[in-house]
Structures are given as structure tokens and as C-alpha cells.
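The instructor's notes for this session suggest beginning with a concrete chain rather than abstract definitions. Hand out the sequence below and ask the class to guess, before any prediction is shown, which regions might be ordered.
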Amino acid sequence: MILRPRQEEFVKKSVAALQEHGNTLGIAPTGAGKTILFAAVTGKIINKKQKALILAHRDELTSQNQSKFLRVNPDISTSIFDAKEKSFDGQAVFAMVQTLCRQNNLAEIPKIDFLVIDEAHHSTSDSYQRIITQIKKINPNLLIYGVTATPNRSDKKNLSGVFSNVADQIRISELIASGHLVPPKTYIIDVGTREDLGKVKKTAGDFDMSEVEKIMNKSPITDAVFSKWQQYASNRKTVIFCSTVKHAISVAEAFNNNGVKTSLIHGGLNDNERKIALAEYEKGNAQVIVNVSVLTEGWDYQPTSCVILLRPSSFKSTMIQMIGRGLRVIDPEIHPNITKENCIILDFGTSSLTHGCLEVDANLETRKKSENKKKQNNQKSCFECNALIPSASKECPLCGTDLSVSEEETKSELTDFEMTEIDLLTKRSNFKWCDLFDDGSSFMASGFNAFAGVFFLNDSWNAIGGSEVFGIKIIAKGSKQICLAKADDFLNEYETYENAYKSKKWLNEPASVKQLNLLPNIYRTDFGITKYKAANLLKFHFNKSAIKSLLLDQPQISNAL
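After discussion, reveal the predicted structure:
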């Protein structure tokens, strides 16, 4: 498979930082392909005589990580060490932390040269530290690499005890603009509580949620929340974040009493009760799910397209985690009848005003350069902990120090923000994309093993992927950016760097006589067609019947057909 150009950049910076600075952290949010990233880094760091250990905090992640790792590194042997399988035989071992950290299992760990920590913000916890300590006893020269979407911990434990620097940070704005996440549409709503919420004090790092509950858990306020949800998102699958269990129960009751089937999940439920609540929501029996700090991390349900914040957050990373639950794009193979182009955020707390909404965080690319900035690999030094971090960071990923612009500048950005689209067609793709009919409605790209097309139908875009392995299928529906991103990833998965041939000279050479003779009559006298465009037109016409069938003969492209 091929990595996206932005992924290649991330890997290159990570490898350079590991070699120069030692233990390194990389920040990659949902949609960046985190597992693919650390797999590629591992493949470039270890030699044939070295051994890597990849840690995950859930059993199902060990096998998932192993599978994706082998797509990137098919020549590296792997094994798994978890509750069901315990083997250190592979050159790359995928282990579940809760299993490996037990004393009897720690004693079995062989010499490890490279330790990879998935969800690296957990690395300061006792279980991870026991594993790190044991590995270092065997190999003091252990090299550690961590990847996480949210580096700042709510308990304020400093990650600089594990990592010396941050190699790179893929920003949510990049993934939204490139179509790998849907854009958030944020509404900051004051229901008469903003002033009181601004007075709530912090306890153990976050706001005192019992005080938040006293302010927010009132019938008139809950009724206003439901009314605003009806106004902006009544047809959307919705997740709601509340301050306390008591607050969550009140909100769930209000939605249910208004005829909207709503599930409730919180830490007081046992595993079976949680599974039932999630199943109600994910299988369509409930439109809304209300939770208290349970769905903040490690849960994604793609059709979720509205997030309601009924609690403030003192940490921007927590706010981003909550909002991130609604930013996943739809996989049409899993949800064939759903199209999702954005996510509505209804913020009744103060998080967006405190931290700036996601759009602000994504767009604050200009700031005063600090005097102690180190101009190396686009990094700077945090003035608090002196760690090297990406120069665009607004908050130190290791110690949490605020490095952002002034409040006045942030407020200005909040009102003036405009998302700048990344041109995936020319800058962010390994492939050359063709406008098939020169009308902006149909695009195709191809390699040796596969092709992909993006077509505009009924005010929406559709992406189709074709391969000899399975034929032709729809791989995305929604905005142009989402469809292009999915189509591009499809080609990356089934092609190689050599087959991408984006820079090959023959791409722009005139089409051959043989190609022109195979094309429909309308193209045979057009000697301006290049070989590559002719190849894509031929792929289209050879597969026209199957494509038309998938797209249901929509009139928007029927003329081009």
C-alpha cells in the first residue's frame, strides 16, 4: 500500500526525531491513520536483528493493529501477547497492556529495542510504567515512540517523563479540509447559564462537575436544550455529554418524554448494561445517547452527526475528544443508506469560548514567534518544559502549557474564521486525477491494479472504486472532499508507489492511435487527449455499465455517459 503524502511527511519527521532526539511523540487525531503511521515508523527504525513491542490498551486493538501493520510491513514477522494468545516470537509483538503488566508476564519479556505506545497519553500510568521499567532493565538503550490524538492528560501527569520531543502534529483542520473528517458546524448557545458557569472552580484539574450540575440540571434549561436541538439537529443521531449522572438522567428523561428515544450510559452501569445502551443507539432503536465521561475516548459511531456539550471542559483536549465523536466520515459498506457532510456542535457550556471552537484551533496558523524557538525540522521549544514541539502547537503536548495567541486575537478568529480547503487533486494525492468530461462533475485516477472515480449526482458526490480483486463498489457518498479522500485512500490501499506514476513523463504525452481507436467516436479526432486521460476514459467506458448500475443512471451524469 501507499501512504498519503501527509502521512509520509509525518513518518519522515518521526524517524528523524527518533534518531536525533531519542524518545519521541507524534500527534495524530482520528482520521489520520494512526496505526498506519506507527507501523511505517517501526518499519524504518528497526533492522532485521531488532525487536519491536507495540502496546495497546484494549484487546481488540492488538489484532487490529497487527493486521494494519502487516499491510505496511509484509516482510516483518508478528505475534500477539494478550489474554488469549501469548507469544513473543514475532519481530514485532502486539501486546495488551493490562495483560503484559502482570508480574508473571513481565518476567517473560525478551530484549526489546523499539517500544511503540498506541494512545501514548496513557504512558505515565502505573501499568505502562511497569512495562517500561522492566524493558529498560533488559535494554537501557530502549527507544520509545508514542502516538496519540490527545496528549494532555486530565490528571496533569507530564508526558515529558517519557518523551523528549514531539516530532509532528497532524491537525484536525488538515483532515477536515482533505475530506478525512467532516467539518464541524458549531453553535455556542447561552441559555442564561454562561455567567454562572464562568464562576465554577476547578477541582483536580477539571471544573467541579457537581457545581456545574447545580447550574445546568434545571427543567427550564433542559427544555431549552431540547428546543435548540429540535431547531438545529432534530433529524440527526446525537451524543450528549453531561456533567454528572444525575444531570444525565434528567436530560435523557426530557428527550424521552418529548418522544425522542434516548439511551443513557455512565460509569455506574456494568458492562452488560453499557452494551445494551450502546446497542440501542447504534442499531437504530434510539436516536440520542446521553453519557457522562464514558464516550469521550475510544468510541466512534460514524452516523453520529450532532454533539451536544452540556458541561464545560478545562482541557482543550477533552473538548476535542468530545467533538471528535461526531467527525467520522461514513463508510457506505457499513451504512449504505446514510450520507453525512458535517457535524452540528451545540455548545451550552463554555468550552468553545474558553478554548476557541475547533475551527479556531484549526485556523490559528499565524502567531508571534517565541524568542527561544529552535529552527530545526519546524520545531520550537516550550518555554515551560523546554521540550522540542511542532512550531504550530498552541499548547505544549507534553506539559500542557498554553502557547496560544492572546484572548483578543482568539475572539477575532472566532468570528472571522473561514475554512481553507486543501486541493487534494493536485497537492495531497499520490495520483494524477483527470476531469473526465471537462465539466467538473466526474473525476478519475488509476494505477495498474485499481481505479477510482468521483461523480456528482443529485446534489451530492459519490466515489467508486474498482479492482480485479472484487470488481466495482461505491466507497463514499457526501461532499466532494470526502469522496476524493476516500477514493484516494482506496487507490493507496491497492496500488504501489511505482504504480501511482504521478510524475511519469508519459502521462502528458499524446494518446496513442490504439487508444484513440478504442475510445468512442467523439474522442477519436481530439488529439489533445493525453495517454493518461485516454487510459482513464477507457477504464470508464469499459466499466460503464457497472458504474451506471451503481449510480442508478442518475441524470446528472447521464449526458456524459
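Then share the key points. The CA atoms of residues 317 and 408 lie 21 Å apart. Confidence is low (pLDDT under 50) at residues 359-376, 405-422, 554-561.
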